[in-house]
Amino acid sequence: MSETPPEATSGYRFASPWDKLDLSRDKLRRQYKHDCADVERNAKGYVIRVKGLHRALQPYQYGLPADQQRARELIAQDGCSWAELFELELLAVSLATEEQFGILTAHWREAAPVGVGRNDLFRVVLAGQQRYFKVLRRERALDRLRLHLGAFTLLLASALFGYFLWTQSASASSLALAGLFGILGSFTSILMRIQDAGQNLNGQTSAGIATLMDGSWSLYLALLSGVLFGILGFYAFAADIGGHFLSWDLIPNIEPKAGTVCPGAGHGGCLPYLAGAADYGKMAVWGFFFGFAEKFIPDVLTKLANARSASRSDAS
Fold first, then answer.
1. pTM of the entire structure?
2. For site-directed labelling of 306, which of 86, 100, 185, 273 has its Cα 20 to 30 A away?
3. pLDDT (tens digit, 9 = 90+) per residue, 16-62?
4. Residues near 111 by Cβ (< 8 Å), separated by ≥ 6?
């Protein structure tokens, strides 16, 4: 292999965060420390792999002296930012001798076929770094979304459970139970769809992630719809609708029965309620299943799933 490396690797090197003149030095220092902590937390194995690759190349016998010195400085650091980590990986391609170049092609054997040139390997490594960062960004966005939805669900479920324990009305406690397990069902359904959306974003640009985060408000409406569907399911059983499709052993017993004449104590005497302890258990299970109906509410996850289906149809 007689191909020579670029005359200067600065074209491949990521700019240092200290080069951003529009930010104060203190803010740059904080950002740099945050970046290093982020690498330590999320890419510790990545750092070990890249530094180990450089130790296999030492002592350097190829490349520009400035690149050799820069690589030694980065290896000697206790931590590094994302820019420095990616730069160090690119420097390995620049500093490998002709004999050592086989180590690199073996290191990236899945993406770089045997016999690939040095400049071609630069492009392979850059593309791999972009994919890695895109996947990391996607997982962060999904994790934040799960955390926010989980906190909202916990808050609302706690309020419903507190009302369930506090109220003295059998009808109100029955509704609270149906709504409580309805939102738990909708939260489980949304978590499953978020997982599917994350897989669908594997081949998409960052625009898909931005759509998921900017449109996440619609997921809160989907969560709230779980409460509504749980309560609607309770009233469907109270209206004796479920008895026409299901066994009486599967549906909760709700009093008063359909067709009962209201007593003279006003509308409160006709409000339905769960008759026994076993009926509370049955309603909890059904409320959870009713919560899964949230997927019929249009939201950003539905939009992403439809877009993915449309792209597959066009490809076929």
1. 0.68
2. 185
3. 444 444 556 677 777 778 778 888 888 888 888 888 888 888 888 88
4. 124, 127, 128
